[in-house]
Amino acid sequence: MIVLTGESLTMEQMRCILYKGEAAAACPQSMERVRRCRKVVEEIVADEKIVYGITTGFGKFSDVLIGKEDTQRLQQYLIQSHACGVGEPFPEEVARTMLVLRANTLLKGYSGVRPDVILLLLELVNRRIHPVIPQQGSLGASGDLAPLSHLALVLIGEGEVFYKGKRQRTAKVLAKEGLQPIVLQAKEGLALINGTQAMTAMGVVTYLEGEVLAYQSEYIAAMTLEGLRGIIDAFDESIHLARGYPEQTRVAQRMRLILTGSKLVTNQGDLRVQDAYSLRCIPQVHGATWQVLGYVKEKLEIEMNAATDNPLLFADGDKVLSGGNFHGQPIAFALDFLSIAMAELANISERRIERLVNPQLNDLPPFLSPQPGLQSGVMILQYVAASLVSENKTLAHPASVDSIPSSANQEDHVSMGTIGARHAYQITMNVRRVLAIELICAMQAVQYRGVEHMSAKTRGLYKEGRKIVPPIVKDRIFSYDIENVAKWLQAEKREIV
């Protein structure tokens, strides 16, 4: 059981909730803060004080006063009118993450919601009822308004959910589970949709996928090194300590560990003096990606525990402040950076693929073909990798450098962070397929060299990989192989060293 406090949610806890079936619960002390804050909102409504989003309209309508008899309808209209998302829905694990993050931020006790709102969010998490949330439509400031409105619809019994593998009407599923939708009270609709939880959730899932891929890329690169009789000296600790980046040094250390006992790697001068950069510079390039992953993890964990709605209530109601914590710029920058770092893992992988298939760059059969000329072998697999890498270059253009004013220029600068998050996720999916292609090619190369000469660790990967992709004895439809390996890599939610 993961206990949410509003202060201490970690990436590892999110991994447990997403991939290990852990349930989530609210910390009792945090819920007491929530109750105290809620009393403040009720007093504001009773006294008809002028407070943004509680007794006023929203955005450009912030000067329109709302009577206390209309505060409930104000919140319901807010959710319905802002549920304007379009396009394909977010993956279920992203919607699940959004539920957890929204509950966690409300538990900080600055938002003014009733405990019932948080409890229903957690019921949805624990019963695996995931809102259908369209991916497109957020500007990444004023919060992820459109996506989070689709999440909030589910709490009031509207919209759709994913439930037991099917897309269904919310009201039907809640009734089946014996859950009652809530009637939103003052401030609650605004508290649910003012925030960065869509971009942050997509960022969390992308980070977790990217971290696993970064480890897998080292293992796959090690097999490629064996297939090309690469030079192990490039990973000597002295080289990497001399530069000083700890991430680079750790990559080199893991590469040495993976390749321990291999009779396929060589020493400088045995076959050649130096390898190409895509082999020799694995620690430098992959290590730089690890630096970015560390930065992104730090920013995401801050945002996972951040109060991001508006207004916020402090000092037991003595201060009710309007600000801009919903602005997604910190996460927009981080996820644009993640896009670049993950794209580079694919860039260097594609160059290793080229060295595996190009007869001008190795002594293996051309394109690893069983009958060069009659059969094309893996020729077109490299084309596919090149296409994915090129697509990533366009997706890696930073979304955070763009801004378009909204709400009659009241909201005149936005982050576009959710677009950046979606691009980072797409890039990561492409990276997985490029690595799948490298693994297919590397397995074929080491088979020519002699599997018995591999290191114990790469031989273990080879044996598992061959359960997914058989040896290439004649041309076949390789699309199936690529997708099957990619799915297998995605299923491996573990560090493989």
From TrEMBL:
Pathway involvement of the protein, from the record: Amino-acid degradation; L-histidine degradation into L-glutamate; N-formimidoyl-L-glutamate from L-histidine: step 1/3
Protein source organism: Ectobacillus funiculus
Cross-link named 5-imidazolinone (Ala-Gly), sites: A141-G143
Residues the record lists as 2,3-didehydroalanine (Ser) modifications: S142
Gene name per UniProt: hutH
PTMs per UniProt: Contains an active site 4-methylidene-imidazol-5-one (MIO), which is formed autocatalytically by cyclization and dehydration of residues Ala-Ser-Gly.
Enzyme class at the top of the EC tree: lyase
Family: Belongs to the PAL/histidase family.
PROSITE patterns named among the record's database cross-references: PAL_HISTIDASE
Keyword Lyase belongs to the record: yes
Name of the protein: Histidine ammonia-lyase
